[in-house]
Amino acid sequence: MNQPNSVGLRRRPIVALAVASAMFLSACGTNPHQSPEAMRPIGTSLNAWDEDIARKAELESVGTCRLRRDVVAWFPCADSRGAPAISEAEMSTIVDKLERGIRAAKVFIGAPDWSCGDDRRVFFYFPDANFISHAPGGNTAFIPLWRIRQDQAPWLHEAMHLLVKVDGDWLSQADGVAEARMPLWLHEGLAEALAMAVAEQEGFAHYSPLIDVPADRLDAFAAEHIRACPDPPRLLAFVGGRGKLSELFGEERMQYAPAFYAASTPFVRSLARRDGGYRLLLRAIADFDNEITTYERLSGRSLDDSRREWMASIGVEIAPSSVAPSR
Length: 327
Known about the structure:
The chain has 327 residues and is of the alpha/beta class. The chain has helices at 14-28, 50-62, 88-108, 145-149, 155-163, 175-181, 184-202, 218-228, 232-237, 253-275, 279-286, 291-299, 303-313; strands at 11-12, 48-49, 64-67, 71-75, 122-125, 134-137, 140-142. The protein has two domains: 11-163, no CATH class; 171-313. A five-stranded mixed sheet has the order 3-4-5-7-6, with helices on both faces. Strands 1-2 form a two-stranded antiparallel ribbon.
């Protein structure tokens, strides 16, 4: 996810995040157990949420940090003396995996020199809390500590939200604009498809909280969950078209989210197979607010036709409703 999906959370500007971090740093000072080369590298969150601000500032002030060339990882401390909550060996294993994955992901999408401002690193924050993993923009991703420790974290998915180039920012738009025009299926489906591809290439165990099935079962999984959701025609209107399915952000989330992600990811993978790779999809998603028309122009195919063909291939004969504009 490139945004938390809890109801009622509010986004804060990066200025507020910087002020909060500065307050924590001023109050707490530095961690005496931290190595000199790891002192206070602070990530940039362009669309921070309320809970991100406090967690990020606390980790940067009293947490422990491990650095690599392309990764910064912040872990919580177990006590006020600065002892890490997990062992040095476990932290090293986690950060080495993150580093390998981020380097591979950058190459896979054709952006080996990716950076946010002048910083090429992706910042991972691992609070000891239970929440939905997300990447609020900039170069930061927030993952629960227990997930990364149990190898049940969608860290590559969240990193892809940061690494994939987009000439605009849907998260900074007014809610009504993003709800009507953002092709959420493309952003989520492409992030997941790319994460799966990189994980397979690097031999990682891929994990998704919503569609944790092997790649060769994705189509069958999609067909099953599309049929099972409360309103399949409405769901399908938001796969291949514009807009954000409102049910994903309310009390009905778990009735729709598995089907939405299960449909978006294999649909994107089917487009990539026909295109001979992800190059056209990456070019399309970069063209902010023109993603649909750009993809259709580059591929020479209608997304409505492509969706119809993919649905037929998985045995789903349901006509999407007309609730979402296609252009």
